[in-house]
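#struct-pred
JK: can someone run the complex with 2-oxoglutaric acid? inputs below
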Amino acid sequence: MTTLTKTQRTPRKQGMLDNVMRQFDHAADIIQLNGNIRKILEVTNNEFVVHFPVRMDNGEVEIFTGYRVQHNNALGPYKGGLRYHPTVDIDAARALAMWMTWKTSLAGLPYGGAKGGIQLDPTKYSQEELQRITRRFTYALGDNIGPELDIPAPDVNTNPQTMAWILDTYMSTKPPAERSTNMHVVTGKPIGAGGSEGRDRATGYGVFLTIKFWAEQKKIDLRDKKFIVQGFGNVGYWAAHFLEKEGATMTAVQDAYGSIANDEGISVEKLLEYTKANKGSIQGYASAYSVENSEFFGLDCDICVPAALGNQITGKNAKKIKAYLIAEGANGPTDVGAETILLKKGIEIIPDILCNSGGVIGSYFEWLQNKNGEIWQLDEVMAKLEKKMRESFTRVFETSKERNIDMRTAAFIIAIERLEEAYVQRGIFP
Ligand SMILES: NC(=O)C1=CN([C@@H]2O[C@H](COP(=O)(O)OP(=O)(O)OC[C@H]3O[C@@H](n4cnc5c(N)ncnc54)[C@H](O)[C@@H]3O)[C@@H](O)[C@H]2O)C=CC1
Ligand SMILES: O=C(O)CCC(=O)C(=O)O
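RT: done, structure tokens with the ligand placed:
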């Protein structure tokens, strides 16, 4: 059995962790959050770091490091994705777990927050190797995940297939009578393996909905508006798909391999077909020209959708941004320094914990269906998702107007106040 290390510290350091803590501090100061509750929310509950060996296709054994950080479970089981990327480390997992706590609280879900992943570059491994890595990671986590304890889901470079491997491995460790009742140990599964209709598009659809609700408030017609998207994976593609369907035009895209642009428009569906035949990359797409990555955020557009990694919009490139709206599909794409610049310029930001919350809401629907032995149709899932997204958006937008604060601070306040209420009502910290 691989050794699990458990710590309870959350040191402040530059990067995503520093950003999420500063966002939290800002909101907590405004509402004068109860000091004891603040202490609890500042630290993560549990942190698991696992090292595990996996045999590669060439017969050699490689050692991998995986992480799962459980930030808070005052509102329900820990919930959040697993990321496979070279930048995954303990601080990234802590930051992303904290954002999950605020996100699930804001969305009114019966969940806490967690996040994790494996530090690796998945492009370097075969599908067989990725399957063995995922299965060994699942064994290493053991009963530290579970359908009523901590429920992983897809994130960067993980997908329904990854979730199916986790499900299968987790179930194989359970006695026969418990196997079929544990389907909800992960969400974002393939439909045939207990997944839900609509979870594939839930995050991107939610991103689109928040843009639509914002445009309604501002009396802006999305038809003919230009948008740019960083990241053309699950979130970026689906957000672009729904924006294009609404009549907006995608004029630039950036992925891990480079950036392309075309002021006349880039067809979302044609680009998707191209990436499928091009190892997932947008590079070389004939109906667009390539641009320097450093120019990407400064391109002319109305709406900018960062849907890749954290800390992409920084003090360095924020000044160049021409969009009047940033819709954060990614977690933590805008650092605190950049946000100050953007807000001064009058650029509005739909914050990640609201903008991309469609994903975890879709996961909640999958979890409920598994628990209750139900199967919902796509239109039912999408209608329920839209209702929940509208409720969250309206609360954030109204709070932001009433208190004369930006939407991120408003979203944090709503999320933290729900947690504060839970702790106070439980009588722990009157
Ligand atoms: N999948 C989900 O349901 C949810 C994802 N998110 C967040 O959305 C973001 C994207 O996640 P997914 O779409 O699921 O991942 P994905 O793995 O499907 O796609 C990631 C995309 O980002 C691109 N990318 C990676 N590194 C990049 C870089 N340095 N510069 C530009 N592009 C880069 C990749 O080439 C790919 O196109 C992440 O921040 C994730 O945490 C948030 C909520 C839910
Ligand atoms: O679907 C989920 O449970 C979580 C998705 C996720 O990782 C996120 O919202 O950042």
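RT: quick notes.
The domain at 16-183+191-195 is CATH 3.40.50.10860 (Rossmann fold).
Confidence is low (pLDDT under 50) at residues 1-13.
JK: thanks, will look after standup
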